[in-house]
Amino acid sequence: MADHTYRSRRRIMVRIFSNQEQMSPNFRDPNGKPLFKKLTSPPDDNDIDVEKIKWTFKFLGLDERDIVLSKRRKKEEVIKMFNRWGGNCNEEHEEKNLAQWYDYFFFVFLGYCNDIEKTHFQFDDGRMPISDIYDQIKTMKPYVGKPKVFLIQADDISLLPSKFITKGGSDREIKTRTLPQDADRLIISSDIPQLFANRNHPEYTKLTDSTGSPGQAQPPRPRWSFLVEAFSDVMTDRQYTTPGNGDLLTRTCFINAKVSALVDELHQDLRAERTREEETRENPHVPMTVSTLRKLIFL
Predict the structure, then answer these.
(1) What is the β-pairing status of strands 40-41 and 46-47?
(2) pLDDT tens digit string along 134-163?
(3) Treating both helix axes as pointing N-terminal to C-terminal, what angle do 226-236 and 248-273 enclose, rounded to 10 degrees?
């Protein structure tokens, strides 16, 4: 079994990158402020998805020191951090070569995809493909041979029935995606907007042409993005830790199944709401999972 499983001393590095606002100049109010923002929770006013991810890894027994949040980072800042952790920098810093101490890596990106380049993540100063980060770290020794999991929730607001988005036809251009060529990587990504999980929230009705989800009362608190909710449920539920289905790659099937059920419910609501003119708009779909893992990951 050991030969088929990645080595683990329970040293797991979790880094969360959160950009809570859609920074595109195409979606600003008359005062120049972003129209689309993530739903937040007190006391730190963090994206609710951030709090759910942090809770999930704490539930799994990780120390708070290993779960670090970075908010509103610029592109070059993010690249610099990955290089620093991998020892690829000249500066003296307490986090230099930090990655060599860890066995597993979870890199979580929570925010928005760019409204023009859908495969790009929107950072605080513009868009960048996450693949730029893959390419940065794939040859750095502290990362090599260790599993690197990328969980990406990048809301595509063109999926929303919004009064601020041009109607008619598909808003999304089909683009060729390059599959990763290096090993030991798992990518789970979704572009279903967080607001779709909160169809009776005032922000949803304010920013869309919708009157809310039929027959549903306003929930007592905002709900997490579909992917984040499904990821947390599967990672913390004992039924997914039994022999035969407890490894992380197998669990992604259950994550997708849970998101699929939520999407089916969403499709029913959208069909009821959409006008004939909007019927050609693309529907949300289940997360994309890409793996080049060579062994099993158990947490």
Answers:
(1) antiparallel
(2) 888 888 999 999 999 999 999 998 888 765
(3) 140
Burial of residue 248, with CB atoms counted within 10 A of its CB: 0-12 exposed, 13-18 middle, 19 or more buried: buried
Q: pTM for this one?
A: 0.88
Cβ pair 89, 80 in contact under 8 A: yes
Which residues have a Cβ under 8 Å from the Cβ of 115 and sit 6 or more positions away?
A: 22, 24, 26, 27, 157, 158
Which has the closest alpha carbon to 99: 86, 118, 116, 81? 86
> What is the set of domains in the chain, with CATH numbers?
2-291 (3.40.50.1460)
